[in-house]
Amino acid sequence: MAQEDLDDYKQDTRTGKVASETLDWFQPLPSDIANAEAAATAGVKDEGHVNYVEALEAYEARPDIEDLAHRRARDFPVDFDDAAFMREVDGGVGSGA
């Protein structure tokens, strides 16, 4: 296939525009640019990871959240006593709600 054929193939027959002209209007949103800059400043790859450690610590500090040691013992108990906290009224976690 000749290059001319490929160029014609890329052209929209309804508008006569090629793809780069059709998508010319598409630009990143200002919030996307700001989020990318915040991620670069924080030294992380994705803006969702900015302040991740602080958010995780705040989450773990909540009284209604099961700590990792209890979760592992509940999901993968090594022996009967590892999961004894589940048989308690309060469960040893949070407010007992």
Largest beta-sheet characterization: none
Quaternary state, please?
A: single chain
The proportion of residues forming helix, as a percent range, comes to 40-55%
Radius of gyration: 27 Å
Q: What are the low-pLDDT stretches, counting only 5+ consecutive residues below 50? A: none
Proportion in β-strands: under 5%
Count of helical stretches:
5
Distance between the termini: 70 Å
Morphology: elongated
Mean pLDDT, all residues: 76
Give the topology string: H per helix, E per strand. HHHHH
The count of β-strands is: 0
Output the structural class: mainly alpha
Describe this structure in a few short sentences.
The chain is mostly helical and 97 residues long.
Topology:
Layout (H helix, E strand, L loop, with lengths): L2 H8 L8 H4 L7 H13 L9 H9 L7 H8 L22
Descriptive notes:
The chain has a domain at 25-87. The protein is 43% helix and 0% strand. It is built from five helices and no strands. It has helices at residues 3-10, 19-22, 30-42, 52-60, 68-75. The radius of gyration is 27 Å and the shape is elongated. The model has no long low-confidence stretch (mean pLDDT 76).
Short descriptors:
97 residues, mainly alpha, 43% helix, 0% strand, elongated
